[in-house]
């Protein structure tokens, strides 16, 4: 932690995994206040599948940022000690023409070795041994606990009503808990960023992107890696629990979340030896913050002095690297070249 006469003060709106990581990294050098309308990690973070996926194809300079994700999580793991990350590798059954760097092309024998309960291994698959999975809620709470140990203040169940400005600069927040003075503000509130910034004349090119998280009760460990196919993604964080991620199609009916969950359950039961014992626990729809061009929006907003934005998908993959880089920019005042392609200035805000 930085010592001295007075540490800079920063307020972070949003206690999901991105806000928590930014708060933790800032707390080493600044006095931090984190505000969330609910409980930490129980917004979109709670519905995240938890895949640290650094090898999926990405556009331009965002690919470079995403490529830092795994290294940064290992750094964070070294800093924090025990963390809720499993470096289990990711097994993909996609039909990609060639694997990207760090991904092995494998045959059915290797698939069977990695996943002995899988019934029909394909003739070709791809394995990313360096990738892993994370408990997003547990990681969020751990980061906030460490931030608090550094002196941060976390205000849960506190709704931000307005961002108040004077002379083109952030001055305070109006909240359900009263007014909070604020000269440096980070907005990391996921899909709510758009509504928070609209009164300031900022039309954020962001939309909610729904996905479905399915929880299944298991009797034994049937899945050893993270499996991704064209049909769905599955992983097994504990012997008693399997998680599956599915695309959202409709609010109800035959393409609604419950129907999709039942089809996913059937697919998984048919794909795994012992799968008939699986039972559906819950189905949850999560609304991911998706920039219109699918590239994170990270950086200062030129229209409002003291206002910094951090909103993206996937927050789980990028949390460690984004937390460090955002804190670095806010404390040192030097722009991180790794974030160059993510600046809000690419839009007319």
Verbal overview:
With 349 residues, the chain is α+β, with helices and mostly antiparallel strands. The protein has helices at 17-27, 60-67, 69-80, 108-114, 136-149, 193-197, 257-271, 315-332; strands at residues 9-13, 31-35, 51-52, 85-86, 90-92, 104-106, 125-128, 132-134, 153-155, 160-166, 169-175, 178-181, 185-187, 206-217, 226-228, 233-238, 241-247, 279-291, 297-300, 307-311. It has two domains: 9-70 and 135-205 and 292-346, FAD/NAD(P)-binding domain, CATH 3.50.50.60; 90-129 and 208-289, D-Amino Acid Oxidase, subunit A, domain 2 (D-Amino Acid Oxidase, Chain A, domain 2), CATH 3.30.9.10. Helix content is 26%, strand content 29%. Strand 16 and strand 17 (241-247) form a beta hairpin. It starts with 8 loop residues before the first strand and ends in a 17-residue tail after the last helix.
Q: Biggest sheet: strands, sense, closure?
A: 8 strands, mixed
The name of the CATH topology of the largest domain is FAD/NAD(P)-binding domain
Distance between the termini: 35 Å
Count the domains.
2
What radius of gyration results from the CA coordinates? 21 Å
Let me know the CATH homologous superfamily of the largest domain.
Answer: FAD/NAD(P)-binding domain
The best one-word shape is globular
- Average pLDDT rating: 93
Which blocks of ≥5 consecutive residues have pLDDT under 50? none
Helix and strand composition category: alpha+beta
The CATH architecture assignment of the largest domain turns out to be: 3-Layer(bba) Sandwich
Question: What proportion of the residues is helical, as a percent range?
Answer: 25-40%
The helix/strand order is EHEEHHEEEHEEHEEEEEHEEEEHEEEH
- Spatial order of strands in the largest sheet: 6-7-5-15-16-17-14-18
In DSSP terms (H or I, runs of 4 or more residues), the helix count works out at 8
């Amino acid at each position: 932690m930085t010592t001295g006469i007075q540490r800079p003060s920063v307020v972070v709106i949003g206690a999901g995994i991105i806000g928590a990581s930014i708060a933790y990294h800032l707390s080493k050098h600044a006095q931090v206040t984190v505000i969330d309308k609910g409980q930490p990690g129980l917004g979109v973070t709670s519905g995240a599948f938890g895949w640290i996926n650094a090898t999926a194809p990405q556009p331009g300079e965002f690919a470079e940022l995403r490529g830092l994700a795994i290294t940064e999580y290992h750094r964070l793991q070294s800093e924090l000690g025990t963390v809720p990350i499993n470096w289990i590798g990711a097994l993909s059954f996609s039909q990609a023409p060639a694997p990207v760097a760090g991904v092995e092309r494998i045959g059915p024998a290797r698939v069977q070795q990695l996943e002995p309960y899988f019934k029909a291994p394909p003739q070709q698959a791809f394995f990313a041994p360096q990738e892993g999975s994370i408990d997003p809620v547990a990681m969020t709470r751990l980061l906030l606990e460490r931030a608090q140990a550094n002196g941060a203040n976390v205000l849960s169940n506190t709704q931000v009503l307005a961002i108040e400005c004077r002379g083109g600069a952030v001055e305070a927040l109006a909240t359900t808990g009263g007014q909070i003075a604020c000269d440096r503000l980070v907005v990391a509130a996921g899909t709510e960023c758009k509504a928070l910034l609209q009164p300031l004349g900022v039309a954020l090119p962001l939309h909610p992107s729904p996905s479905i998280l399915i929880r299944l009760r298991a009797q034994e460990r049937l899945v050893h890696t993270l499996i991704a196919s064209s049909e769905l993604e599955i992983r097994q964080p504990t012997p008693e629990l399997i998680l599956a991620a599915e695309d959202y199609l409709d609010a109800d009916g035959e393409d609604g979340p419950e129907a999709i969950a039942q089809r996913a359950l059937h697919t998984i039961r048919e794909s795994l030896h012992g799968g008939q014992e699986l039972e559906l626990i819950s189905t949850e729809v999560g609304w991911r913050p998706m920039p219109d061009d699918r590239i994170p929006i990270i950086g200062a907003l030129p229209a409002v002095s003291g206002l910094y934005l951090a909103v993206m998908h996937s927050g789980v993959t990028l949390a460690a690297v984004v937390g460090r880089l955002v804190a670095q920019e806010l404390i040192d005042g030097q722009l991180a070249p790794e974030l160059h392609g993510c600046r809000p200035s690419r839009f007319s805000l």
